[in-house]
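Researcher: We're teaching a course module on how sequence relates to structure. For the next exercise, students receive a sequence and then see the predicted structure as tokens, so they can try to spot secondary structure elements on their own. Here is the exercise chain.
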Amino acid sequence: MDWTWLKDHWQMFYMLLLVGLVLYGLVRNFAPDALILGAAVLSGLAGIIEPHEIFRGFANEAVLTVGVLFVIAAALRETGALDILGSRMLGKAKTETSALLRLGGSVMGSSAFLNNTPIVAMFLPITLDWCRQHRISPSRLLMPISFFAILGGICTLIGTSTNLVVDGLMGEWSRLNPEHGDDLRPMTLFELGKAGLPMALLGVAYLLVLGQRLLPDRKDLIEQLGENMREYLVDMVVQPGSRLVGQRIDQAGLRHLPGLFLVEILRDGRVIAPVEPDEVLQANDRLTFTGAVSTIVDLERIPGLVPAPDGGYVSTETKRRDRRLCEAVVSNTSPVVGKTIRDSDFRARYNAAIMAVHRGGTRLTGRIGDIVLRPGDTLLLQAGPHFVRAHRNDPDFFLVSRVDEARPVRHNRAGISILLLALLVLGFSAATFREHVPAAYQFLFPPEVVIAFVIGGLMVITRCISVSDARQSVDWQTLITIAASFGLGKAIENSGLANLIASGMYQGLGALNLGPELGPVAALSAIYLLTLVLSELLSNNAAAALMFPFGIATAAMFDVNARPFAMAIAFGASAAFATPIGYQTHMMVWGPGGYKFTDFTRVGIPLDLLLWIAGSVLIPIMWPLR
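Model: And here is the predicted structure for the students to work with:
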């Protein structure tokens, strides 16, 4: 054995061991931020990279932009802008196919400009309610939602954090290796769409034609949806001066709310039942609904419609932000048992207002204030922030829990948040011209990171989101993972490991005698496929970070443009459909859809292969290798 060669190349084997340990840890679901940051630190400890290179990613513009985009997405959710968008998408859909078409356009359009996770989180309950109402299994729609979100994300720079990671790696690599010159210049907002949009449309066509046939049809989920829905009775009052006054029931959006039924209207002592869709709402109308807790929460978010079982409900939007929705089960020793809600003096006893009541096995009717409380009744309460802690061990209740999805929405800021989102997209589009204008006028075209911070700051200043909520909305694990990956990538390059792998690929393809034209294309296709496989097994951001140095080294080995290889890594890391662990939105729909691991492989592998072939053809055309 040539010990001299081994001594001279120990860094390569050291990094190979570190990368292997990172891959093993990711497969075993260890924390990705700790794994990648730890590997970068160990690389620095061995002297493979300098200390400032370990943490260089934490000041990278792409990482900072991803962080601010979390805040912007949270602000859109806080103002109800996402709810307004989502609730209108499935309203008129009657069949599974029409629902798929509506979801495809809505989810893809939204995810092209917003992080995929809040988009899927928004559409998940809306789709579940629609499935319950139309007796269609959620397994037929939830997986496509996650797929649509990914397909929309590959069309723009800000569609997914992975695109920004690759863009940041390109900029970092270009600064440290000036010889790449124009090859690794920053991406423009819609540059990925040159190949991403055709690939996305191909993916939609697949889902509608073949994928729909491969989706499982878990009939038992329909029954589970009905059994698990705890149906509440709630009275809502139309406030004088609200926009609802003078609108028909269907115009006000109260006719086809998923999972909710409008029982009757009480107007000036007269009961209107059944309620026709053309019934015109008047001030002080009392509307009686039955529905699940999630839909009661949705009702509370409609401006001008407030629960009114007693006088304790706080209806002012700003004051409601200091209140919380809770569920409490009445015990047999509670002093309110045997009393009507109106006479129970609940507000004075517990500093909480009863919004709605559920009684297991019985559909409650009549006025909610006239209901005589019994042991086992579940109450939906508007209470102070410390109600759960104060009454968790209270013998008056069997159980007390918080309704996590219930947050007062800043409806009056929805228009502002949508306007700021439009300015973000406009600003990102304008930033693409920054390098093409004289230096004296570049201040008119600020870079993307500055635009993102300005819009994020305006979201806070205009009170679309509070400072504390903005701080909590940032996914710090994702940010640390992305930032640490820059140092690990640099260590892989410095150690020579990237060149070793690229050289092996070059020699392997050379043995096939593909020639100077097909050889680089085959190498690009191989990089795409390797990135895709890693993304299916690990996480998309980790796959992009690990494969980037190998992709750039392969381009250098073939003496071709590095940009197509960077694009192949961006698409390969994002467009992963074959396993539920390949993308975080897959995990979000896995449980509610009742899916098995093999469901993803059956539907996702053909789509993976289809987009791999499409990408291998489109990428060299849109970004020439020479």
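Model: If you want an answer key for the exercise: Residues 597-622 form the longest helix (26 residues). Residues 230-402 form a domain with the Alpha-Beta Plaits fold (CATH 3.30.70.1450).
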